[in-house]
Amino acid sequence: MKSLIALLCLLSTILSLAPEGNAGPPNVILIISDDQGFPDYGFMGGKNVRTPRIDKLAAGSLLYTRGYTLPVCSPSLATLLTGHYPHVHGITGNDLGKPGAGRARLTGRLLKHALLLPKALSAAGYLTFQTDKLWNTTFSEVGFTAGMTGTVGRHGGAGLKVGREGLKPIY
């Protein structure tokens, strides 16, 4: 129930930020970047990695600068998708099953949650798109209306093309 309330508060906050006179809700772009920290980006003061397009996007956006992640991918993503910390959603690592056991254990833990962020956004009328890594599940299973990640390979197959080839695979 707390996660439902938190997600509804997040959605109402996002929707309340729409400019007056706008007939529709604002665009929402959520970028999760694996293996970087907030000071790595130019808009956060980073000097080592050039991020001009992200800096430009950030300049005209609402930023949440006090977000925290977990040390590996799956628990961080599950926390974002469910609104729960790992002690609640049960995903505490990337490979919880025995070698060769497949994706069932993590997928089951993730999908048992009644409310997932992509499903909530889709229910609110948003078109949602997922690319790059999505551990142990597919874009449609978590509620994205479109996406690239399937069940091929450990990280989802075609979803990784954007991180490796740029945006051409989604055009």
Mean pLDDT: 74
Shape from CA axes? Answer: globular
Distance between the termini: 38 Å
Q: Largest beta sheet: what is the strand line-up?
A: 1-2
- Point out poorly predicted stretches: 1-15
Helix content: 25-40%
Structure write-up:
The protein has 171 residues and is mainly alpha-helical. It has one domain. The protein has a two-stranded parallel sheet. The longest helix has 15 residues. It is globular, with a radius of gyration of 17 Å.
The gist of it:
This protein is mainly alpha-helical and 171 residues long. The protein is built from 7 helices and 2 strands. The chain has one domain.
Task: Give the SSE map.
Blueprint: H1 2-16, H2 52-59, H3 73-82, H4 86-89, H5 104-111, H6 117-123, E1 129-130, E2 146-147, H7 161-165
Parallel strand pairs: 1-2
